[in-house]
Amino acid sequence: MSAQVNGVNGAAASSAAALAAAVATVVFGEALVDDFATEQLVGGAPFNVARHLAAFMAPQLMITRVGADHNGDTIRAEFERFAMSQAGLQVDAIEETGRVLVERTPKGHRFVIVPNQAYDYIGREEALAALAALGTVAPGALYFGTLAQRAERSRGTLKALLSATNATRFLDLNLRDGQVEESTIADALHAADIAKLNEDELQSLFQTWFQLGPNDAPMTATEARSACRALLQMFGLQALVVTLGHRGSVYFGADGSTIDTRDTPPPFVIDTVGAGDAFSAIFLLGRARGWPLELTLARANEFAGAICAISGAVPRDLGFYDKWMTRWR
Hints:
The protein is of the alpha/beta class. The chain is 39% helix and 21% strand.
């Protein structure tokens, strides 16, 4: 059982009032610390998305929960560094700030996601209060994933938020082994208007969860496209976006449209951590700013590729964003 501390203090309430004039995106989910052997980096897919949006000066409200500990202070410092509203930042007096143990191996990164963390206890009343503080301006989108839905309390808070707004519901699937049940994934897909996932998650979703394709071999391109269409219909989605790494992305619309976007890979790749989060952030940014869909997808691909050329999911130097803001002005 997690004790509550009011996460919307006086400063946060003032921040919410300032945000109310032009909020575009509500982001719900985990803010955590990735614990490497040599360093700690702030992460969590939703928080990565929110920080990118903030860096592009796109109004956003991040709803999450951290512990009253050193890692929580580190995350609060990131809110300040990106000039983000803390109206949706809750502080838990008992549970620790979320942590993921990361081990680099010859086959890539191995993740151990620590259970019973502060983001598992995001409070419903505090979250709804932060949303209500936005006033009469309705958010354009509500971003959510699946990791923060592994626990009943945060899952219930998300459901309350989804019921409280008519914003477009953007699901970034971010499947993590052993963290959520099939019913939670199905409910999330039913709740979403737009779902985004990568091709590994696509394969897992189709073959392991919903048996929409053969489970003894990788799906062919034709099988994958057919299964995507089945997924759109099964869950009543407006759109499904599949990211394909260095090969770009494919957008499937409920109207039968398909948009293939080829990536512009960076000259070198340091790591791919956070590339999907970068894609989601620019997709949401494009929708908020009214960019044409094809341009939005192209820019999302390009920015995701650029993130692969730096270490970590979010640049340490905020000057990284300057050229993008200049080009996309």
